[in-house]
């Protein structure tokens, strides 16, 4: 195991984050580096200097950016399209697969809320059913595959599954689930919202559809995400907005031009990948994982709680059980996070799973162990 003392020096100066705040929730909205902000600002200034010239140049610039992002994922660029976020990617996938009346869309209880809502919408439209498989937090891969496989069958329209669960920071065994679905020819839609930057070649497990956000760990401007589509589905996969590229035979170009849209974030996104390369991100990711292991233990000890035994946690995300004061409603959770922000000058997020409430910790190159020690010192004062 990498020792926490081996961690590389944090680089907060590469971001414009408020130094008076503990930023411990990179996993929700990310943080855009200074260099990328400068590129983004330059692109927007160029747009406003001559909008006609800008929009004439957009198609070529989008192609160049898209190819860089596809290369980063190590995926076939012919099957890689840009979308605003992973929720949009899942929605496009559900709009593509055939959903017969009486069929079942299978999810797990780890699914992101907006993804579940999308499944429910398509189920209503097609007189289908949403089936939620309960997967315990501490499940190993064999248990995950066994539980989900038991819900699959000839009436399953699609399996929609997290690659890294937002609620639990748990990594799912996607390749094995793809193999299980292949027995019934069931399309697999992977919500890989957190996967870019945390998993190498995250779209390489053979799913029919994979989607992931670049604004999280790769630190690209928000509104930048990718949709990877297997070859058999490319001809019928359409963007959610009907625009001038409707009849383009190529999947990526069909998604590129969505009318009068702000394309600057997509074009600026590769600059953040270059920032990560300069930071030797893969090495830092391993070291940050060790930092978070220690940080989670320190916070759990301060709260008198525990760190759940997630078999395969995401590299730079950890859960700490929170002895939540009162009824853990969404409104109470939002109020608690606001108190932490205002009184402790710290930004955190809470997640709920079954009847348990957790602080979901994140780390990026601007974080150090001292950040989590500070939270451990301050958080007990709120109880």
Automatic annotation (TrEMBL):
Q: Does the keyword S-adenosyl-L-methionine apply?
A: no
Query: Which Pfam family, giving just one, matches this sequence?
Result: Aminotran_5
The major lineage groups are:
Bacteria, Bacillati, Actinomycetota, Actinomycetes, Propionibacteriales
SUPFAM superfamilies, sorted = PLP-dependent transferases
Protein name per its UniProtKB record: Isopenicillin-N epimerase
Give the species: Kribbella voronezhensis
Aminotransferase class V domain mapped to chain residues = 82-283
- Which keywords does the record carry? Pyridoxal phosphate
């Amino acid at each position: 195991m990498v020792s926490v003392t081996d961690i590389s020096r944090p680089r907060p100066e590469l971001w414009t984050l408020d130094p008076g705040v503990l930023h411990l929730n990179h996993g929700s909205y990310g943080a855009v580096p200074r260099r990328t902000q400068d590129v983004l600002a330059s692109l927007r200034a160029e747009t406003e200097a001559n909008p006609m010239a800008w929009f004439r140049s957009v198609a070529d610039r989008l192609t160049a950016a898209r190819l860089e992002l596809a290369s980063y994922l190590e995926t076939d660029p012919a099957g890689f399209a840009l979308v605003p976020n992973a929720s949009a990617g899942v929605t496009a996938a559900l709009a593509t697969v055939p959903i017969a009346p009486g069929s079942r869309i299978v999810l797990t209880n780890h699914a992101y809320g907006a993804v579940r809502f999308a499944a429910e919408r398509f189920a209503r439209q097609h007189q289908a059913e949403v089936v939620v498989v309960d997967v315990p937090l501490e499940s190993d891969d064999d248990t995950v595959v066994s539980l989900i496989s038991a819900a699959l069958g000839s009436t399953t329209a699609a399996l929609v599954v997290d690659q890294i669960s937002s609620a639990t920071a748990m990594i799912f065994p996607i390749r094995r689930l793809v193999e299980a679905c292949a027995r019934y020819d069931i399309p697999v839609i992977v919500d890989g919202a957190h996967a870019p930057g945390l998993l190498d070649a995250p779209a390489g497990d053979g799913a029919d559809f994979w989607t992931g956000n670049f604004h999280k760990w790769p630190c690209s401007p928000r509104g930048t995400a990718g949709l990877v589509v297997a070859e058999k589905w490319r001809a019928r996969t359409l963007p959610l907005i009907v625009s001038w590229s409707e009849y383009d035979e190529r999947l990526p170009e069909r998604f590129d031009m969505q009318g009068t849209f702000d394309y600057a974030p997509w074009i600026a996104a590769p600059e953040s990948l270059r920032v990560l390369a300069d930071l030797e991100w893969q090495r830092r990711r391993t070291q940050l994982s060790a930092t978070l292991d220690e940080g989670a233990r320190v916070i759990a000890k301060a709260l008198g709680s525990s760190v759940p035994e997630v078999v395969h946690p995401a590299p730079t995300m950890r859960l700490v059980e929170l002895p939540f004061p009162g009824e853990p409603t969404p409104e109470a959770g939002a109020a608690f996070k606001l108190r932490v922000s205002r009184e402790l000058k710290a930004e955190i997020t809470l997640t709920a799973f079954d009847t348990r409430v957790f602080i979901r910790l994140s780390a990026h190159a601007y974080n150090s162990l001292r950040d989590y020690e500070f939270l451990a010192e301050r958080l007990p004062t709120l109880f």
